[in-house]
Design a protein that fits this description.
Blueprint: E1 12-15, H1 17-21, H2 31-43, E2 48-53, H3 66-72, E3 80-84, H4 88-95, E4 101-107, H5 110-117, H6 121-135, E5 141-147, H7 160-172, E6 177-182, H8 189-202, E7 207-212, H9 219-228, E8 233-236, H10 256-265, H11 274-288, H12 295-299
Parallel strand pairs: 1-2, 1-8, 2-3, 3-4, 4-5, 5-6, 6-7, 7-8
Helix pairs in contact: 2-3, 2-11, 4-6, 8-9
This protein binds zinc ion.
């Protein structure tokens, strides 16, 4: 592909299964099961966990117990517990539950933003300004996700310049960690490598994270292209569950287990214990009552020698 491979020796994962994953499920997990999921992820070594969402329960009944979940989880020292907030109203609810981080989201395309949150990109950014003003004095970090950063179900191709421009506007608001989401799973490795390089060059003061969906089977390849281009932060979901209920055609998230297995085998550290992680996957599958897409969950983290 004509690029120099430059991986980092450590990669950070944020598991988004308790939010991005569960919000796409028809089965609504009990509050205590959500709490067990979050605590299990922390025990397995996840440095960052997206616990829940403060989107109105009217839109997202699966997350109606956001306050209860936040109150009941253990807070393992060093782990960043983040919550998704759509607007200042959501942030107000979230702040009362003392998250370490609030994540706001905006689409790279105007049409998707309108369909997703019923306002323009400019209106979303204005709201983030208020969220940031509420968070800062309380020592809560604000990060952002640019969804449909690699392609939009309504507008098609999203230009690299449009994404970098939007990221720059978020940075100007005081947001210094931005995740680029391939919401509908159309990104390919060459596109990802180009995006990561351009982003790091244009916004060197912003922490870049990547969020891939495996709708077309390219998610792990995209993660590797990003790692090889120097990216160190990823958002993945246990079991590979998820897919947005608001994005037509969205498939599951890239699986945390598959990502951790692959990077660990390559000698890249993640701080995550794969065996412990798979224990939580088994718990999740039992509670969901259906299978999950993760390959490593099915095959196991170790090769079992065949007895001849
Ligand atoms: Zn996702």
């Amino acid at each position: 592909m004509g690029w120099e491979w430059r991986e980092s020796s450590f990669v950070w994962f944020r598991d988004v299964s308790p939010r991005d994953g569960l919000q796409a499920e028809h089965v609504v997990l009990k509050t205590e099961d959500k709490v067990q999921l979050v605590n299990g992820l922390a025990r397995a070594g996840l440095p960052r966990i997206e616990v829940t969402s403060f989107v109105s329960p009217q839109w997202l009944p699966q997350m109606a117990d956001a306050e209860e979940v936040m109150a009941a989880i253990d807070r393992k020292p060093g782990v960043v517990y983040s919550v998704l907030v759509p607007n200042p109203k959501g942030a107000e609810r979230a702040i009362a539950t003392k998250p370490d981080e609030m994540t706001v989201f905006v689409s790279a395309s105007e049409t998707h933003n309108q369909k997703n949150v019923h306002r323009s990109i400019a209106e979303s950014l204005k709201g983030f300004q208020d969220v940031w003003a509420m968070a800062k004095p309380r020592g809560i970090t604000v990060s952002a996700v640019i969804v449909t950063a690699f392609g939009c179900p309504y507008e098609g191709v999203v230009s690299l310049d449009a994404v970098l421009d939007l990221a720059g506007r978020l940075r100007d608001l005081g947001i210094h960690e931005i995740a680029l989401g391939d919401t509908v799973g159309v990104a390919h490795p060459k596109q990802v490598a180009g995006m990561v390089r351009a982003f790091r060059e244009k916004l060197p003061d912003v922490q870049l994270a990547l969020h891939f969906h495996d709708t077309r089977g390219t998610a792990l390849a995209n993660l590797l292209a990003a790692v090889g281009s120097g990216a160190t932060r990823f958002e993945t979901a246990l079991g590979g569950i998820g897919g947005s209920p608001f994005s037509p055609g969205a498939g599951g998230n890239l699986s945390t287990e598959d990502s951790v297995y692959c990077l660990t085998e390559m000698g890249i550290q993640t701080g995550i214990d794969l065996d412990q992680l798979l224990t939580i996957t088994r718990f999740l599958v039992e509670k969901l009552g259906h299978d999950v897409p993760s390959k490593v969950f099915h095959a196991g983290g170790k090769m079992v020698p065949v007895n001849k």
